[in-house]
Amino acid sequence: MSTILVPTDFSEVASNAAIYAAKMASDIQADIVLLHAYNIPISLSEVPMPLLSDEEMREASHEGLENVAAMLRKEGFQGAIRFEIGKGDFVSVLQETIETVQPLIVLMGITGKSEFETLLMGSNTFGAIRNLMVPVMVVPREASFRPVKRIAVALDLKNMKETIPAEQLLDMSGAMGATVHFVHIDSGNDYPNSDTAIHLDALKHAFPDAVCHFSDNLSLVDGLNNYVYENGIDLLVMFPRKHNFFELLFNSSSTRKMALHTNVPLVTMHR
Fold first, then answer.
1. How many angstroms separate the CA atoms of 129 and 119, rounded?
2. Which terminus of the chain is less hemmed in, N or C, by CB atoms within 10 Å?
3. 225, 215, 269, 230: which is closest to 246 by C-alpha?
4. Model confidence at 191, in pLDDT bands (50, 70, 90)?
5. Is the pTM of this model over 0.85?
6. Which strand (E) or helix (H) includes residue 82?
7. By three-state DSSP, how is residue 211 classified?
8. Which CATH number fits domain 150-268: 2.40.50.140, 3.40.50.720, 3.40.50.620, 3.20.20.70?
């Protein structure tokens, strides 16, 4: 049985992501693990003192997770729900939980006042995207679940050999019963050549039913958005690497525009 790991800070955004995860879990017959990470709050007096004990924080965390689970039951989720509670910084607790749970995917909501802008400037979600070696799904605030039948995978032809984690992609698309669309948006005369043709042939061998698409667009974000809308894409997959396609896309001023104009969840994968 596959498992979807759902971190939560009990916010409205996290609750929406948990509901999305529950509906996805029902669709692919997966279990859910709810995770909360906490730190002991400290007073700001001259002599700093903990405001709550570790036991009190764990009890409060467990009560919060019970409330989230009750909400998911109200939404109709009938599968297994387990709790994980960890003390420490968010990403470290998440990494430790992943080692124990071995989830198919980690599913999180976008946090912060300005959607993707805050996500990319150092939020918990961005920390997870940059540091975790399992797929991380980021669910936009207004997204509502629909079965995933078409997955668009953004390609970086310059680093294709290094940035295609085929096994993870096969596991995820297989669990969802989805068709994969490999998409390269050309923003600098970067068409497929004899070198990249080898990698494309390997992808076609691993994904015989996949669609391969190459498009001209000066804006990577606009090109991806256009393909998502024109082809009924349910999920967008990207591969974060330093100083390449991912950095160019997510450090651009167009990122906010992408977040505001699409309700399609984003999945990041590392090799």
1. 10
2. N
3. 269
4. low
5. no
6. strand 81-87
7. strand
8. 3.40.50.620
